[in-house]
Structure formats: structure tokens, C-alpha cells
Design a protein that fits this description.
InterPro entries: Aldose_1/G6P_1-epimerase, Gal_mutarotase_sf_dom, Galactose_mutarotase-like, GH-type_carb-bd. By secondary structure, this protein is mainly beta. The chain is built from two helices and 27 strands. β12 and β13 (about 180-190) form a beta hairpin.
């Protein structure tokens, strides 16, 4: 939706001045919001901290519910980092994924080489990851609306926070619908031109760690003939690479886990890394049909995604295990005496093309402002294999 500048500025000002008056004043960081689909086919838990999904239950092929979303049983760990900070289940932003050197320009230029340069905090080597040191995953969102099957969280990100221009007001609505369908809608308005790229950062194991501890039984298929080429720090070079004759070709269904070792030679997930941490571009997307499918041949749980986003990032949990700081699994996934291990889960992020704000050759406009609002829509449709 596009609004005329004066109207959107007025609307933004009105929201800023009245938000506290119209939203609940005492939102607890870890207050659990429980949702159930109207037909009982899915259940999920959320907390305001990071607008985070902490649990997600759907039925397996035997009709038994499994919690297939990774996370912490102790919700305080989402904030404390005492067990690390893997970005379990939140909304990531104001700009998801990486920003080269933590810099960008408006209008955008190659590697922030133009005027009007902005600097945001570095939190992954020389680059910025998922919005910086104080990204949206580290903010306490406000519950503005709630029903038995839906919740809306809101967040005000002030002008100048972490170096980003403009105040951004964001709402995310999670809705559980019939037939095990999870709708996610994210909308933002900004008072100045600013980069916005948001996504849900959800870790999945469709077996809930019951049959296996790896991704061999997890298969995926999606029509994407190009992926974003990156350097050893996973920063885009500006080029798109053909997936043909590479382990990143999922145009025909295949095992994710069985494809991981084949990534080692080219280090597709960064220097010294084995696995996937890549952004694919969908060949076609009419926003009406699923563009991505993933399933476990063991549990029978399948996920199809319909989205208005042009790309998809997949991370195969290459570095989730830290011997010095192992993350205990949730009780619903065999914990807490067992831990989450490398290549035992997968993150799926529907999003725009990564770091396009430093690569104008991608031809993607990720700058939003008073005349252009941001909209992200996805439906996660769960079912079981026939």
C-alpha cells in the first residue's frame, strides 16, 4: 500500500503520540501467548520479547502432535545470552541478514561508495547481522490485539536508533488457521527513507529429534535456478550464480542432510564452513501457490510456503553447537540433557535479496519511507505425507 507523504507523516505522528495510550502498558517480556487453530490442527506459543515463536505443534503421520520449533524452555535465555544468541524464533530487523561493513547510502550505491552514508553497529566481524547489537529480536514488542487463534505485536523503532534514519513502526500478526496453516503478516511505516528488510528466523526439525539427530530424512524442493554469490564472510559480491551441477540445486526433491558434505569444497556457507547458509531467488512467484516445500520422510510432517517475498535463505545449523556453550534441547525435543548439534536443524527465512542496499545491480528497492510502506506476507501450510 502506498500513501501520500503528508497523510503517512500525519499517520506516523498520530501513532507515535497515541501508541502508549491505546496499547497495554505492562507487557511482560516473557508473557506466553498461546494460540490454537480453530479446528485444533495446530498450536503455538509466543512471547513479546522479539515477537518470538517459542513452540509450534502439528500432527505427524500417526496423528500425534510434535513441537517442531527449536527454542529455550527457560524463556529468560532469549534475553540473557547465557546459552548463546542463536536468534531462536524472533522477527529480525530493521534489516535482516548482513550489511557489508555496517554501511549503506540513500540512494543506494555499490558498497556504500556514495554520499549520504549511514553507519550501523558491527556485530559479526566487520559486518552487521540481523539489525546490529540491538535488533528487533532484542526488543520487547507490545501485544496490541489477541484472540484465541491470533496475536498482533507492535514495535516502535526510533529515528537514529543504531544509526538507522527514520522512526519505523512495525506490526506483526501471527494467525493459526484451519488445516494447520500459520499466517504471518508484517507491516511497517517509516517517517524517513530507510532500509527495511524483515523476516521470521525460525529453526525447524520436523522430527522433533525423535527418529534421528540429523537432516538426512529432511527433503526439500523449490524452483530456484539462481543463488546469491557471497564471499567468505557471506557478504554478497553482486553476482548471481547458477545452481546447475552444484549441491544448491533443489529444483528436484532431495535430502538436505545428504547434500551437506558436497558443499565443503566450494565453502558455500563461508570460509571453512560445511553446509548451507545461502539465499536463493525464486524463478516464479505469483504469491498464490507454494514456492517452497520441505518434509521429513520419518515423521511425515511437510511444510509448504506461500510468500510475497522474492527470495529464501536456508541455514542448516552449521554452527549451532558450541562445545563451550552447548544449547540444551527443549523437553519436547528430548532435552535438557541432550543438546542441539550442527546440521540437526534448518532455518527458513522468506525475505528479499540479501544486502541489496549495497548491490544496486540486483535491481531491488529496499528503501522505504513516507510514500512507501513495507509489507511481508507468508503462509506456512503444514500437512502429512500421503
Amino acid at each position: 500500500m502506498t500513501l501520500r507523504a503528508p497523510l503517512l507523516i500525519w499517520f506516523s505522528t498520530l501513532l507515535l503520540s497515541t501508541c502508549k495510550a491505546h496499547l497495554p502498558e505492562q507487557t511482560s517480556l516473557f508473557e506466553v501467548v498461546k494460540l490454537t487453530a480453530p479446528d485444533g490442527s495446530a498450536r503455538a506459543d509466543f512471547i513479546p520479547y522479539g515477537a518470538t515463536a517459542t513452540n509450534f505443534w502439528v500432527k505427524d503421520k500417526t496423528g500425534k502432535f510434535r513441537d517442531i520449533l527449536l527454542g529455550f524452555d527457560d524463556h529468560k535465555l532469549y534475553q540473557s545470552d547465557a546459552a548463546g544468541h542463536p536468534y531462536f524464533g524472533p522477527i529480525v530487523g530493521r534489516y535482516a541478514n548482513r550489511i557489508r561493513d555496517g554501511t549503506f547510502t540513500i540512494p543506494i550505491s555499490k558498497n556504500a561508495s556514495g554520499r549520504n552514508k549511514f553507519h550501523v553497529p558491527l556485530n559479526e566481524g566487520n559486518n552487521t547481522l540481523h539489525g546490529g547489537l540491538d535488533g528487533y529480536d532484542r526488543r520487547t514488542w507490545t501485544v496490541s490485539k489477541k484472540t484465541a487463534s491470533s496475536v498482533t505485536f507492535k514495535l516502535i523503532d526510533p529515528d537514529g536508533a543504531q544509526g538507522f534514519p527514520g522512526t519505523v513502526i512495525t506490526s506483526v500478526t501471527y494467525t493459526l488457521d484451519r488445516h494447520s496453516t500459520w499466517h504471518i503478516s508484517i507491516n511497517s511505516i517509516a517517517t524517513k527513507q530507510t532500509p527495511i528488510m524483515l523476516s521470521g528466523h525460525h529453526y525447524w526439525n520436523f522430527e522433533a529429534y525423535q527418529e534421528t539427530q540429523d537432516l538426512i530424512g529432511h527433503h526439500a524442493q523449490f524452483a530456484a535456478s539462481k543463488f546469491v554469490a557471497t564471499d567468505g564472510q557471506l557478504i554478497p559480491t553482486g553476482k548471481l550464480t547458477d545452481v546447475s551441477r552444484t549441491p544448491l540445486d533443489f529444483r528436484q526433491a532431495k535430502s538436505i542432510g545428504a547434500s551437506i558434505n558436497a558443499t565443503a569444497a566450494e565453502e558455500y556457507c563461508g570460509t571453512g564452513c560445511i553446509g548451507f547458509d545461502n539465499c536463493w531467488l525464486f524463478d516464479k512467484n505469483d504469491f498464490k501457490k507454494p514456492v517452497f516445500s520441505i518434509w521429513s520422510v520419518n515423521s511425515g510432517i511437510k511444510l509448504e510456503i506461500i510468500t510475497n517475498q522474492p527470495a529464501l535463505q536456508i541455514y542448516s545449523c552449521n554452527g549451532i553447537f558450541n562445545p563451550a556453550l552447548p544449547i540444551p534441547r527443549k523437553k519436547t525435543q528430548g532435552g535438557p540433557l541432550t543438546t542441539y548439534t550442527d546440521h540437526s536443524c534448518v532455518v527458513i527465512e522468506s525475505e528479499s535479496i540479501i544486502d541489496a542496499i549495497n548491490n544496486p545491480e540486483f535491481g531491488v528497492n529496499q528503501i522505504y519511507g513516507p510514500e512507501r510502506s513495507y509489507n511481508w506476507e507468508s503462509s506456512y501450510i503444514f500437512s502429512t505425507l500421503k
